Amino acid sequence: MAEQKRDYYEVLGISKNASDDEIKKAYRSLAKKYHPDMNPGDKEAEVKFKEVNEAYSVLSDAEKKARYDQYGFAGIDPNMGGGAGGFGGFGGADFSDIGDIFSSFFGGGFGSTQSGRRNGPVAGDDLSVRANLTFEEAVFGCKKNIEYNRIEKCSECSGTGAAKGTFPETCPTCRGSGQIRVTQRTMLGMMQTTKTCDTCRGSGKIIKKPCPNCSGKGAVRLRKKIEVSIPAGIDDGQKVFLQGQGNEGRNGGPSGDLIIYVSVAKHRVFERDGLNLYCEIPLTFSQAALGAEIDVPTLDGNAKYSIPEGTQSGTSFTLKGKGVKQVKGRQYGDIIFTVTVRTPRNLTEAQKELLRQLDGISDEDKKTHKKKK
Questions:
Q1: Is 218 left (phi over 0), alpha (psi -120 to 50) or beta?
Q2: Which of 134, 161, 204, 287 allows an S-S link to 283, with CB 3.0 to 4.6 Å?
Q3: 262 and 155, same structural domain?
Q4: pLDDT tens, per residue, the chain with 373 residues
Q5: C-alpha span between 343 and 356 (Å, rounded)
Q6: What is the three-class DSSP state of 205?
Q7: Alpha carbon distance 184, 179 (integer Å)
Q8: Using the 8-state DSSP alphabet, how is residue 275 labeled?
Q9: Which helix (H) or strand (E) holds 365?
Q10: Rounded to an integer, what distance in angstroms lies between the CA atom of residue 175 and that of residue 196?
Q11: Same domain? 236 vs 297
Q12: DSSP-derived 3-state class of residue 310
């Protein structure tokens, strides 16, 4: 028995009273979610993508939608029988053409939508490009000019594929239906089935004089240049989506999206981890020992910070809220800097003597040292 298909309204997640805009919006969202390019190798997503396209091809067509609302899936109604035991008396007969038989009876079901899918709306493919940003451009946001190739409806023929002054003609073989009836012998006798028209390849139209600009395809590949707003706080490897800027859809289908993959250059001072920035700041021996007020680099100039006396090399300090802004929010990260104490070089004899005096250990320190041993 053929597997029962899901209701088309259920497939798109909409009510039967949904408007044309609601139907189109639901389709766009699901087509993008299950598109094979976004789910490579995912068989389940591939099945759902086909299911979504099939549902939209019916519900976006007023005539088809009306028939579906009235009759539903008559061709795969489980009450009509089916299965190997449903046709007793034929023993080992070949049931491979059962789908064609039901198709001729009910004008649908059992894969008939495959032949009609060529005329249905098809979503345009998503496209992807890469944008190279400086560290500052990523942190503060910027405008970027992006160039890429996009498939669009041919402006010369308005997408018809026919040369100016001419129009596609109805296919004389299938009379515009895209399908033809074929009589064949089956286990039930001579039956009529339908198949895709070989003359027009299912389009229902014949173009006698193709448009020279698109060679009869109705679409052309053009070089596009657009200005893109890069949000502040974006990080290396993240993406920006521009809805409807991908390849243009066919037969009234929605356009795909443009996906911009972001590459961010390294900074000469900071290392980024999420919203936080990290850096190292050198201290002199006296600054670490006596304490000092130092300049700490930030994204918008230097900030003053008081280093306490006796600071050891490798100690970290934090400047709150001086890091990167959250892309979708108001939160800011921190700047976390680690101090490294520089060992003095080329000392005079007097300076060396002072260091020897500083290096002396008090009796109390010696006792503590021995206890640790």
A1: left
A2: 287
A3: yes
A4: 445 678 888 899 998 888 888 898 899 889 888 887 777 778 888 888 888 888 888 888 777 787 777 667 553 233 433 333 333 333 333 333 333 333 333 334 333 344 344 566 888 999 999 999 999 999 999 999 999 999 999 999 988 899 988 989 989 988 888 888 887 776 556 677 778 888 888 888 888 899 999 998 889 999 999 999 999 999 999 999 999 999 998 878 899 999 999 999 999 999 999 999 999 999 998 899 899 999 999 998 999 999 999 999 999 999 999 999 999 888 999 999 999 998 777 778 887 777 777 666 434 454 454 444 4
A5: 14
A6: strand
A7: 16
A8: T
A9: helix 363-372
A10: 12
A11: no
A12: coil
- Same domain for 338 and 302, yes or no, is yes
The two tokens of residue 222 are: 């053009």
Residue that the structure tokens 């026919």 belong to? 162
Domain count, the chain: 2
Distance of alpha carbon 98 from alpha carbon 116, whole angstroms: 19
Residue 154: CB partners within 8 Å, gap ≥ 6?
A: 161, 211, 213, 214, 217, 218, 219, 220
Q: Residue 133 carries which side chain, given as an amino acid letter?
A: L
pLDDT of residue 232: 95
Of 238, 266, 294, which marks where a domain is finished? 266
Cα distances from 246 to residues 31, 126, 242, in angstroms, run 13, 5, 8
245 in the same domain as 336: no
Residue 133 belongs to a domain with what CATH number? 2.60.260.20
pLDDT of residue 1: 40
C-alpha–C-alpha distance, residues 311 and 294, integer Å: 13
Domain ranges, residue 223:
124-159+217-266
The SS3 call for residue 128 is strand
Residue 74 lies in a domain: no
| Partners of 339 in the β-ladder | 281
Torsion sign (Cα): 302, 307, 311, 316: negative
